């Protein structure tokens, strides 16, 4: 079974190295693809310096969805594809826990369930909206609906013409995958990443998330 890891990255020069080193240490991984989404720092230079990593650079910042779609065109004959954020650092090795249930035939998709945040974020509105939306449309009760760390059997990703863009992508994909009858499993991991705090930029980010998820859910009503 061939396993590929896809890492979209934007201005992650401080973390991309550690993220790659954690994954490169896993014998189960056959291919690592990094897509630098038009970073203004040395993200691409650092990623491309690692042997065993295929790094690509987009000329301008086009968003995570675009970077993921571009990266999928570069992946070669994978049976399992892992989406991994560039900011998880040395905890990236935890993706092994996402891969094993798929290899063992337990499920078609795994979603990383992170430990509780180390610092206070928002007030839980975005998480509640995401969880409620998934339950409304599928009946499934999932806790990590916003997590971007996921592993998929290739045939699951084949149901999408393209990975949607925007902050509602994970919620929309989860709904579509469950509706198609694929089995999804949440897997506890000890990953960490850059957390959004209770400052102006943090509330702006969560506001965008809430809006994008709301739009995705509204669209589901009319499909």
What would you say about this model in short?
The protein is of the alpha/beta class. It contains 8 helices and 7 strands, in the order βαβαβαβαβαβααβα. The longest helix has 22 residues.
Task: Write structural notes for this entry.
This is Glycosyltransferase 2-like domain-containing protein. Helices cover 39% and strands 16% of the residues. The protein has helices at residues 16-24, 43-48, 64-74, 95-103, 125-138, 154-157, 169-179, 200-221; strands at residues 3-9, 31-36, 53-57, 80-83, 109-113, 150-153, 184-188. It has a 7-stranded mixed β-sheet with strand order 3-2-1-4-6-5-7, with helices on both faces. Helix 5 (125-138) packs parallel to helix 7. It is globular, with a radius of gyration of 17 Å.
What descriptive keywords fit this protein?
seven-stranded mixed β-sheet; about 15% strand; Spore Coat Polysaccharide Biosynthesis Protein SpsA, Chain A
Task: List the topology elements.
Elements lengths: L2 E7 L6 H9 L6 E6 L6 H6 L4 E5 L6 H11 L5 E4 L11 H9 L5 E5 L11 H14 L11 E4 H4 L11 H11 L4 E5 L11 H22 L2
Parallel strand pairs: 1-2, 1-4, 2-3, 5-7
Antiparallel strand pairs: 4-6, 5-6
Helix pairs in contact: 5-7, 5-8
Major sheet: size, sense and barrel closure?
A: 7 strands, mixed
Task: Give the averaged pLDDT, no decimals.
Answer: 90
Assigned CATH architecture = Alpha-Beta Complex
> How many DSSP helices?
8
Helix content: 25-40%
Report the end-to-end length measured between terminal Cα atoms: 35 Å
Uncertain segments of ≥5 residues (pLDDT<50)?
none
SSE order, one letter for each helix or strand: EHEHEHEHEHEHHEH
Strand content: 15-25%
What is the CATH T-level topology? Spore Coat Polysaccharide Biosynthesis Protein SpsA, Chain A
The CATH homologous superfamily is called: Spore Coat Polysaccharide Biosynthesis Protein SpsA, Chain A
């Amino acid at each position: 079974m061939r396993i590929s890891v896809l890492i979209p990255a934007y201005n992650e020069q401080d973390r991309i190295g550690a993220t790659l080193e954690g994954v490169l240490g896993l014998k189960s991984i056959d291919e690592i693809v990094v897509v630098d989404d038009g970073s203004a720092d040395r993200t691409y230079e650092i990623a491309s310096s690692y042997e065993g990593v295929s790094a690509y650079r987009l000329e301008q910042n086009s968003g995570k969805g675009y970077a993921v779609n571009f990266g999928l065109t570069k992946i070669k004959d994978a049976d399992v594809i892992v989406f991994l954020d560039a900011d998880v650092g040395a905890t990236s090795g935890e993706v092994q826990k996402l891969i094993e249930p798929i290899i063992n035939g337990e499920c078609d998709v795994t979603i990383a369930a992170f430990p509780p945040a180390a610092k206070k974020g928002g007030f839980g509105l975005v998480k509640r909206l995401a969880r409620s939306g998934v339950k409304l449309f599928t009946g499934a009760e999932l806790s990590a609906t916003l997590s971007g760390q996921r592993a998929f059997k290739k045939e699951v990703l084949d149901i999408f013409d393209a990975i949607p863009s925007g902050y509602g992508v994970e919620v929309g994909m989860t709904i579509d995958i469950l509706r198609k009858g694929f089995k999804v499993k949440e897997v506890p991991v000890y990953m960490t990443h850059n957390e959004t705090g209770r400052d102006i930029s943090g509330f702006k980010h969560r506001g965008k998330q809430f809006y994008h998820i709301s739009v995705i859910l509204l669209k589901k009503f009319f499909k």
